[in-house]
Amino acid sequence: MAFTIEVEEWVGSVWHRFITRRASPDFPEAAVTLESMQRPLSVLFRAMGGASGVEVGAANARDLMLRRNLLQQVAGTCKQLPVAWCDSSNLRLPQSLAVYPERSLNEDLYRWLALLAAQAGEMRHWARDNQRWTQAILERFPAMRARYYRLVEAHLQLRPDPASLPKAEGALEQAICQALREPGSIVQFPRSEVAPWPLPMWLYPAENLGAPQATELGEEDQDNHLRAPSAEQKSVRKRAKRVEETTSKSGLMIFRLENLFSWSEHIELDRQGDDSEDEDASRVAEDLDEIALSRQRMRKGGGLKLHLDLPPSDVDDIPLGEGIKLPEWDYRKQQLQDDFVNLQMMLPRGSEPKGLPLHLSPLARKLRRQFEHLRSDRQWLRAQPQGSELDMQAWLDFHVERQHGQCAERGLFMEQRQNRRDLACLLLADLSMSTDAHLDDEHKVIDVITDSLLLFGEALSAVGDDFALYGFSSLRRQQVRMQALKRFGQGYGDDTRGRIQALRPGYYTRLGAAIRQATELLGQRKQRRKLLLLVTDGKPNDLDLYEGRYGVEDTRQAVLEARRKGLLPFCITIDREAGDYLPHMFGANGYTLIKDPRQLPFRLPQLYRQLTKE
Predict the structure, then answer these.
(1) pTM of the model
(2) Which InterPro entries does the record cross-reference, listed alphabetically (predicted)?
(3) 393: part of which helix (H) or strand (E)?
(4) Is residue 558 part of a domain?
């Protein structure tokens, strides 16, 4: 019996693969993924006039009222297909393209969609607007005509024959083919009850991805349990809709009182622990096309889950002084909101003086030797009245001037003097809950950041530069937390090493407030050069409206404010998707990506040495 079931399952899986492959209109062997082209597409989109704050991501499949052939109906495919669309905040492209039998055509299609999105505006009529945008691109960039018509002719060969369709559908198909060949030639399109086969070269109406949670539930009263997405989670966003809770509280429940049991028991609850993600729930959510959101806060099943904003005061970090009011940039109003954010300086609780961990000692000794050479670097001063060597350039200038009757006094020697490094540096480390993610079986992101801070401190203490170390996290705008690990003017020793090793990850990443406070601290230094280094593993986010474009634009504004005050902000990230948002926030040369996070402790001192080189 078991053997029969296994054979049936094997035959069923073979049949499923066969019928799905035969029914699919795509060409898998020529597929191109969005991930492989996401960064150049983002650059192309913005270079051709696209809005700088628009996020380029993958589009989820949507329902289309298509006429499917018999094979597709048997296989159950082509009910939903991914199509490209854009709005003021998103540019969503199919996660992979395999509509053409040639890989180069699929790559050109991605580029064409990015161009079209950069030209696009508000969509009022799907077909007329796409024709108008296409016509504008071809007139503005005549060199694109050959590629465009190559895509059109290859696509028309794959579209259904209008003669094989019912009258209304055939007329619509003919009009669409004409609109592709001659953009702008069709104004009125025939009506049809069935949608035409998808046009991969056109943009579709924007999809409603759901409003931010704060717009309906209120910014101050939210207890929804949001978690930072894992690094392996796909970036496809889901459609969302609000539903009314229909559970009735009225009714009659009859039971025998003696059958009702109750008990109480003391439980030691660790308020600092984080729940692990429910993998089954993640897989279910990935398969859903639309996620319904209710105001109900009850959990229907499973274990006990508590959401506590902050740990109790006896185990939380130690606050230092009063909170600091900071502004925040609202890109929608194009203005700074004064005293909008409250930042609290803190000291890691439980920190004790500690030495450098043994596994970092060999590398720390090597870094100290390298950076001690910077302290002893000497520079040549030219045109000196006396010195150890003759300045040939100054002597030639003197000789030429004397030939022309001019004999101004000038120094003719070079003197070597000690090089004085006139700079200050503040390192700001991201301590959000995403840093609690595992890199392998033994190491987490927070471990890498801790090692980086320790080695950075060892290197800069050797060279003698003025530096400070801070960490930060946030929980909405009322609670931005900034850990003071080493302030300017404090010595670097076992006290600082102990504070660094006592760091714990938690909460979210409100970058703008942290950068503004770091700018204020660094701006008070008297050094000529001031470097603001930021180490982070992800995008700005928080529980309130700071998610998405709002957080990106606020961070960008904070970086611009720092540059106007004479600071050099520079971001070091281990987020592989940083190319989508960091160029907008820090500029093309204002950040670097470290692909292997375990290399961060080695790379950070090297980057500092390059950035501070005269």
Answers:
(1) 0.51
(2) NorD/CobT, VWF_A, vWFA_dom_sf
(3) helix 392-403
(4) yes
Task: For 11-56, write each residue's pLDDT tens digit.
Answer: 666 655 665 665 566 788 888 998 888 888 888 888 888 887 788 8
Torsion on CA atoms 356, 357, 359, 365, rounded to nearest 10: 0
Q: What is the pLDDT of residues 141-187, one digit of tens each?
A: 888 889 999 999 998 888 888 888 888 888 888 898 988 989 988 88
Q: Are strands 413-418 and 389-390 parallel, antiparallel or unpaired?
A: antiparallel
What does the DSSP assignment read for 336-354?
Answer: EEEEEEEEEEEE-TT----
Is residue 191, in this structure, part of any structural domain at all? no
Contact partners, residue 411, CB within 8 Å, separation at least 6: 382, 383, 384, 385, 386, 387, 391, 394
Geometric angle at alpha carbon 17, from 12 and 18, rounded to 5°: 95
287 in a structural domain: no
Segments forming the whole domain that contains residue 52: 20-181
* Whether residue 537 sits in one domain with residue 407: no
Considering the domain architecture, whether residues 435 and 547 belong to the same structural domain is answered as: yes
CATH number assigned to the domain comprising residue 364? 3.40.50.410
For residue 113, give the H/E element and its range.
Answer: helix 103-119
As for how many domains the chain has, the answer is: 3
Q: 44 and 162: one domain?
A: yes
The β-bridge partners of 536 are 573
Taken in order 430, 434, 440, 442, is the CA torsion positive or negative? positive
Q: Is residue 204 included in any domain, yes or no?
A: no
> Dihedral sign, CA of 52, 55, 61, 65?
negative
- Which residue in the block uniquely carries the two structure tokens 């993610």? 437
